[in-house]
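Reopening this one. Same input as before:
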Amino acid sequence: MIATQAALETKMLLRNGEQLLLTVVIPALLLALFGSVDIVDTGAGKAVDFLAPGILALAVLSTAFTGQAIATGFERRYGVLKRLAVSPLPRWGLMTAKTLSVLVTEILQVILLTAIAFALGWDPHGAGTFKGVLAVLLLLVLGTAAFSGLGLLMAGTLKAEATLAAANLVFLLLLVGGGVIVPLDKFPPTAQDVLGLLPITALSDGLRDVLQHGAGMPWGDLGILAGWAVVGLAAAGKFFRWE
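Same output, byte for byte:
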């Protein structure tokens, strides 16, 4: 049941032009623009080396959180979830299927964004080792789980219109303040401490540590993402309403 629902969710996601704009086109355009034009001071080295990991994190945010929250919120409003509630598919099964659908979409995003980054001269230092690849995979999976739980929590508790507004607002705020395009050291020290605990910051910093600086396993960032994943999925499982 979960595999069938995941396949259906993936087909619907890939057919939705508005969601593809949010999840694929916007991250690709941001990477191409900021990676080729010196707009933001990202420190020493090529801009794309700083930006590529952050844009990968943004792609996870846009798909697992923003896109999923909006789509699920309107499915709930139009009664799609109400019909699923009377099927044998349990609530946790629906959440698992939606998360699997997100992972499939993210694979396509990573391929596209990586190709664009390489075309801009990206040189990922930590991608050539097994430990580096494992670290990137763990970061992406935990980041997906964290954002998916938070997106489903929002979609399952708020009205569709409120979810639409809140999800887009959070996306914009995290784009600016999550270390995706603007380095965290540009913010005041107190703000850095708070922003450093956000899942988007942990994901972008963790990917940047591995892919830009060739660091080992980013346990601190993985711990933050794991904490958000547990809290978000548990809260979504408890408070999610079918209608």
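So the earlier flakiness isn't reproducible anymore. For the record, The CA atoms of residues 22 and 39 lie 22 Å apart.
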